[in-house]
Amino acid sequence: MPLPKRRKVRTFALLFCVLTFSYTFWDPSLYFIKYALHQSNYFFSKGPCACRRCVAELEDGEPWFSERFNQTVHPLMTRENSALSDETFKWWQWLQSERQPANYTAVVEELFQIIPDEVLYMDASPDRCRTCAVVGNSGNLKGSRYGSLIDSNDFIFRMNQALTDGFEEDVGTRTTHHVLYPESAKNLDNGTSLVLIPFKTLDLQWVISALTTGTIKQTYMPVVSRIKANKDKVMIYNPAFFKYVHEAWLDGHGRYPSTGFLSLLLAVHICDEVSVFGFGADQYGNWHHYWEENHLAGAFRHTGIHNGDYEYNVTLLLADKQKIRMFKGR
Ligand code: C5P
Q1: pLDDT(128) > 90
Q2: Which one is catalytic: 146, 237, 244, 256?
Q3: Which fold, 64-327?
Q4: Mean pLDDT computed over 59-86
Q5: Are 137 and 297 in contact (CB under 8 A)?
Q6: Is residue 23 flagged as an active site residue?
Q7: Closest Cα partner for 69 from 327, 270, 311?
Q8: Fewest CB within a 10 Å sphere: which of 54, 124, 228, 289?
Q9: Under DSSP, is residue 247 helix (H, G, I), strand (E, B) or coil?
């Protein structure tokens, strides 16, 4: 006998509620899915970051990296970490000795009245996956077609005279951080952070001047007196970190590390995944820049200041230990 219409509706509504309730809370398959999601989330996020591999992950039986990697030295300068020990200060002053250096503490104070005094990027967490591309200036980028791969990273570090116009297909278009020093400086876009590597107190005075009055025109050579850069995005490479890179990662080889190596170690400390482009010679052994027509220029290799071979070998070792990914170009 067919049920009356109202009873039919009530029965249907009751059935709907029971099903919804049991599906949400009791259905074993759903519970399994929830459990699996929870477990996989736990599994993937139990490392120091949310990427597939994390630079900062210290593995047992892999002492080479963990003996060198020191997270207590902050890569970027703040007012608070700007004071240098006597030993570090002496080492730093020796890099490009100045005849009459200004008072370091006073210059730092003046600097932080112009640029932000912030602790940046020290926000590693199991939920963060910060991917970074460190783009050196090697001629091996020419014809590499790495452009879109480079641009797909969260942070893209370029350095010194690096340019993208006309080379987009090989080097990409985006630059989040441009690492430079007074003698290698160039104008930057408003959205790019200027990372100054200071080699002397005068370099700190130069960045103040270049962003304001433009009075400093000369260091040990003529320098640009003004620079187009966003003041709110200027950051300073910490001299204590500079010394740590030279000692811990290069065992003191070379007079001091190159811009490329300093940028690489900055990335290793503030990123979760690091990809390296434009380092080393091209396939014919040339050490020129990717924008140079003269392949025999060899600008980087023969400065006499950096130990290019030693740096390159350490970079290869980092890749071998799967701490960075190395793209060797052409
Ligand atoms: O020549 P420059 O110092 O401007 O290049 C930036 C960085 O790119 C270097 O410090 C070096 O690490 C890297 N480079 C390289 N091989 C080249 C040119 C540059 O490894 N042929």
Answers
A1: yes
A2: 256
A3: sialyltransferase cstii, chain A (3.90.1480)
A4: 95
A5: no
A6: no
A7: 270
A8: 228
A9: helix
